Amino acid sequence: MTTAEDRWLIAGLGNPTRWFAGTRHNAGFLVVDRLAERHGARFRRHGLRSRVAEIEIGGRQVVLAKPQLFINLSGRPVAALLRRHGIPVDRLLVVQDDLDFPFGVARLKRGGGPAGHNGARSINAALRTRDYLRLRFGLGRPPKGTTVGSFVLAAFTPEEQQTLPTLLDRCADAVETLVTAGLGRAQSELNGAGAPRR
User: Which PROSITE patterns does the record associate with it (predicted)?
Assistant: First the structure.
């Protein structure tokens, strides 16, 4: 019998519709897409305003989700999915883009403030806690003269696109390690790559 401790929700953040596909702000979608691809799963529409795929990692049931409200409203579908699947908050991993780390760096942590990310702020408010796991996918800072909004809603540069598959695989590896071996092991593998830990 599957218990709550055996179930995970991996929620990748992004904006729905084809207009935003492949943009930097949709890095969370890209990571869960990679996990679904690895495990031969396909996303389907869910009544809780999400697209969902279910996979198994190390004998544990994992729900992959892409909330289909805009990113700053991610909290409602994430909270609804936790309730529907009976998953505790400490088995929630949110995958999001992050301007505080350079492109090519990703970090895993539990808790913390939203640091200006409206998706994380929405989830904190909906869950009334920050005590969930976050995988932050570094984008770096916008170039001088470029606003944050236009930067995150733009496509990755051709140079970034060459590296992107490797980064997505590294993040997918970290998620699988998190589920099977715990946060400490996953952090040591993921946080040890790229720039110094912040």
Answer: PEPT_TRNA_HYDROL_1
Alpha helices in 43-117 (DSSP H): 75-85
Contacts of 1 (CB under 8 A, 6+ apart): none
As given in the structure block, the two tokens for residue 93 are 């991993």
8 A C-beta contact, residue 94 and residue 135: yes
Other CB atoms closer than 10 Å to residue 190's CB: what's the count? 21
pLDDT in tens, 21-43: 999 999 999 999 999 999 999 99
**Annotated active-site residue in 25, 46, 85, 117:** 25
Q: Binding site residues for tRNA, as ranges?
A: 20, 70, 72, 118
The reported pTM is 0.93
Q: CA 25, CA 42: separation in Å to the nearest integer?
A: 22
CATH of the domain at 117: 3.40.50.1470
Q: How many domains does the chain have?
A: 1
